[in-house]
From TrEMBL:
Membrane topology: Multi-pass membrane protein
Domain Heme-copper oxidase subunit III family profile residues, every copy: 1-192
Protein source organism: Nocardioides aquaticus
Name of protein: cytochrome-c oxidase
Keyword annotations of the record: Membrane, Transmembrane, Transmembrane helix
Membrane listed as a keyword: yes
Gene: ctaE
């Protein structure tokens, strides 16, 4: 039931992001010169590296889910033996990658603000910061969810089916956030 509820909730989140995409394309269609002027300031190679980190975090998240499905909460070998990692190690790595992504977005915001691209400066700035900012908030929510799942594994005496389900549900959310970012990245950084 939890997984089904999560999928339904993510569907409503999809509608929210669809509205942001619609606003982006609508405002872009009426101000193409504004878009050309502002997209020149985007650091596409940096954003691509940041995107790659986020997309790879989806892989590490899924490896953690596979470990949870096997009932393996912690590693069974040394820290350097990746194939023997459990849910905790994969989710900690995923958390770190997500945190690096958020920090990368913050760096990008600082650079853009220094160049005069602010939320109040233009319609481009408004839509850019709303779209990427709401996504960033969703990533931060995913990071909190990873901490909660990890905390439960450390507090519990035994790894249970319910904890595995929690890990799976968090992975649904994380994969959703990653897919949305791929769409945002393509829309904002590649279709200029």
């Amino acid at each position: 039931m939890v997984a089904v509820g999560t999928i339904i909730w993510l569907s409503s989140e999809l509608m929210f992001f669809a509205a942001l995409f619609a606003a982006y394309f609508t405002i872009r269609s009426v101000s193409p010169e504004l878009w050309a002027q502002n997209t020149e300031m985007l650091n596409v190679p940096f954003a691509l590296a940041n995107t790659t980190i986020l997309v790879l975090s989806s892989l590490t998240c899924q490896l953690g889910v596979f470990a949870a499905e096997r009932g393996q909460v912690g590693r069974s070998g040394s820290l350097l033996q990746f194939r023997k990692w459990g849910l905790r190690e994969w989710f900690i790595l995923t958390y770190l990658m997500g945190a690096v992504f958020v920090a990368g977005q913050a760096v990008e915001y600082v650079e853009l603000v220094a160049e005069g691209v602010t939320m109040s400066a233009s319609a481009y700035g408004s839509v850019f910061y709303l779209s990427t900012g709401f996504h960033g908030i969703h990533v931060a929510g995913g990071l909190l969810a990873f901490l909660l799942v990890l905390g439960r594994t450390y507090l519990a005496r035994k790894f249970t089916h319910e904890q595995a389900v929690s890990a799976i549900v968090v992975s649904y959310y994380w994969h959703f956030v990653d897919v949305v970012w791929i769409g945002l990245f393509a829309t904002i950084y590649l279709i200029q």
